[in-house]
Amino acid sequence: MQEEKILAETQFKASLSGGPGGQHANRTYSQIILYWDLSNSECFTAEEKQRLSQKLSSYLNKDGVLQMRCAESRSQFKNKQLVILQFLQALKNSLKVPRKRKKTLPTKAARLKRLQNKRLHSEKKRNRKPPL
User: Fold this and answer.
1) Residue 21 region, left (φ>0) first, then alpha (ψ -120 to 50), else beta?
2) 26 CB contacts (<8 Å, ≥6 apart)?
């Protein structure tokens, strides 16, 4: 599966977390940082890499390595699962190509409603004028 290939290219690092846990957070390496080198990835075509680099630019460092971190839980295992889910979801969302909008004409009801609103507006303005 594609996800397994992508995850094989990732590296993980644990560091001290400032998240929940009080004093426990100062002693355990529960924060997980995910690293993935987009430019050297073999899972995507050149077009897909270009699209990913544009969409995920906030996660990329100057070397083109994607970094994501998670420190939501006291558990290193849970944080690793969460960061993997975030990473895969970000990839999936970035690869979606938006459909082009088809231009359509306004419906007959919309045109009639617009004209009715114009008539009401002009009538309101006309009623503000002093009588002749």
Assistant:
1) left
2) 16
> Which range has the top average pLDDT, 8-17, 44-53, 77-86?
77-86
Neighbours of 132 (CB within 10 A): 3
> What would the two tokens of residue 86 be?
């975030």
Task: For residue 18, give the 3-state DSSP assignment.
Answer: coil
The amino acid occupying position 119 is: R
In the 8-state DSSP scheme, what is residue 109? H
> What pTM did the predictor assign?
0.72
Residues 63-100 pLDDT 10s: 889 999 998 888 899 999 999 999 999 999 999 988 99
Q: What is the dihedral of CA 109, 113, 115, 117, to 10 degrees?
A: 180
Q: Which residues pair with 12 in a beta bridge?
A: 34
Handedness of CA 79, 81, 87, 92 (dihedral sign): negative
